[in-house]
Design brief:
It holds the Pfam family CCG. InterPro entries: 4Fe4S_Fe-S-bd, 4Fe4S_Fe_S_CS, Cys_rich_dom, Helical_ferredxn, HmcF. GO terms for molecular function: 4 iron, 4 sulfur cluster binding; metal ion binding; oxidoreductase activity. The chain is mostly helical and 462 residues long. It is built from 22 helices and seven strands. The strands form two sheets. A four-stranded parallel β-sheet has the order 2-1-3-4. The radius of gyration is 22 Å and the shape is globular.
Length: 462
């Protein structure tokens, strides 16, 4: 069967097609159709010729199968050290086979490769820290996902998520009208407590343009309000765009590279339209990777940079604390054991580990911050990154994957985990629901609002 009604090689382009795919409860028919989906071997060979260049081919050739990457992988460790969970094996048994056979693979192989690429790897790239040849298995699995997506072998939820980006330019069905109304609503809801609070939309030449994760206006509008309150208290001249506000890219998890470019370009268009001095993204790791690290290359920007300086939220928080724009009430500093989750996408992949620890020095009383044994760029993935959190088909494997982070947290003795990343926050929430170990988790924004001093001129009248 070359194409199914739900499972096919055609990207979601319309709201009608998106709703039709959503109507297939849990993707039951989608996965059934996938069993008969033809592999376009000629197209796969052409894609390999066009995109599988010297770096990837060299990595495949020079891998010595030494196994030094094995213990670096949290999925290998928490799955009883199954040899099939060794990063090099995962790559060689999927991408390696596709390349060696020049795309001459069958349906059964492609479904197996899909299982490997989305349930046995989160593309965290921790293994690259340990490879003596500098091979980045995470990058190679990510590339393989793109090949699989092009042939229709992608988890149901991620086909939907990528379709959301194509239809709404957001990972969820949040329209421009929904977004602007949420901004107005959150400003009104909090104006009594913070007089003069506004969420400025489409202000040109502001000092800051703020972008966020679509989950915030869709499910956690208080996060939008918290960002506004902190900018307000810090006296920032800021704005949000009416279009181009969504910073995330589920299409990156799906391997839909065309949609990745479309999504990031939408943000860059907003930057060029409003001309802010700089852009600040929310507490999200993959959003930062998509818009700041990978995005410039997807969009063909020769300097490898976004149109304006673009920083992660932790960088702004550290700056605001350092410069006294936000001041912490000493009496409210945390006086219980607390630990910190390092996000793979802006710590390991963008070097912001010390920035987050600078923030901790303001928020936590000395002696109460406890590092996880593996930390900073060597920290383990939360267990739910790379799209793992959102794929129902692989939920049992994801729950096993949470054990590593559970054990890391328990070893610190801390009951509070600061997690400035949406995927990490979700995974830690889920591990508490799954294992009931008695921990709490938080973003930075609510902590800062509870702990900061409100300037007298910004306090409400009695």
């Amino acid at each position: 069967m070359p194409e199914g009604k739900f499972c096919n090689k055609t990207p979601i382009q319309t709201e009608e097609a998106l709703l039709e795919l959503l109507s297939d409860t849990r993707g039951n028919q989608y996965y059934e159709e996938m069993k008969s989906l033809d592999v376009d071997k000629e197209d796969l060979a052409k894609r390999l010729k066009a995109t599988c260049k010297s770096r990837i081919r060299t990595w495949l050739d020079i891998c010595a199968h030494c196994g030094l990457c094995a213990d670096s992988c949290f999925l290998y460790r928490c799955n009883d050290r199954d040899p099939e969970q060794v990063p090099s094996y995962k790559v060689q048994s999927t991408l390696g086979e596709i390349v060696r056979k020049n795309g001459d693979v069958d349906n059964e192989f492609m479904r197996h490769a899909m299982d490997v690429c989305w349930s046995r790897c989160t593309c965290c790239s921790r293994c690259a820290q340990y490879c003596p040849h500098g091979i980045d298995m995470g990058q190679m699995i990510s590339y393989t996902r793109g090949l699989l997506y092009s042939q229709g072998f992608v988890p149901w939820e991620l086909k939907i998520g990528s379709g959301m980006h194509r239809v709404y330019r957001a990972q969820m069905d949040v329209t421009t009208e929904d977004w602007v109304e949420t901004c107005e609503w959150m400003a009104e809801e909090n104006e009594d407590d913070y007089p003069g609070l506004v969420i400025p939309v489409d202000v040109e030449n502001a000092d800051i343009m703020y972008t966020c994760n679509a989950r915030e206006p869709k499910h956690y509008p208080e996060d939008v309000a918290e960002a506004a309150i902190l900018f307000h208290l810090a006296g920032e001249n800021w704005t949000v765009p009416s279009e181009g506000w969504e910073q995330t890219a589920l299409c990156m998890f799906a391997g839909d590279w065309e949609a990745c470019k479309m999504q990031v370009q939408n943000v860059y268009d907003a930057i060029e339209r409003l001309k802010p001095k700089r852009v600040i993204g929310t507490e999200c790791g993959h959003a930062h990777r998509a818009s700041v690290i990978e995005g410039p290359y997807w969009c063909g920007r020769e300097d490898g940079k976004p149109p304006a300086p673009y920083i992660h939220y932790v960088q702004w928080v550290a700056e605001a604390l350092r410069e006294g724009k936000i001041k912490i009430d000493p009496a409210k500093r945390i006086k219980e054991l607390v630990t910190l989750q390092d996000s793979c996408n802006y710590v390991r992949n963008h070097g912001l580990a010390e920035i987050t620890r600078e923030i901790i020095s303001y928020l936590v009383e000395p002696g109460y911050f406890v590092e996880m044994e593996q930390n900073k760029e060597y920290n383990y993935c939360c267990g739910g990154g790379g799209g793992f959190n959102g794929v129902g088909k692989y939920r049992p494997q994801r729950n096993i994957a949470l054990k590593t982070k559970r054990d890391q947290i328990l070893a610190t003795g801390a009951k509070l985990v600061i997690a400035p990343c949406h995927n990490c926050w979700d995974a830690i929430r889920d591990l508490e629901e799954e294992f009931e170990v008695g921990i709490r988790w938080t973003f930075l924004k609510p902590l800062l609002i509870k702990m900061c001093e409100v300037p007298e001129h910004l306090k409400p009248e009695e």
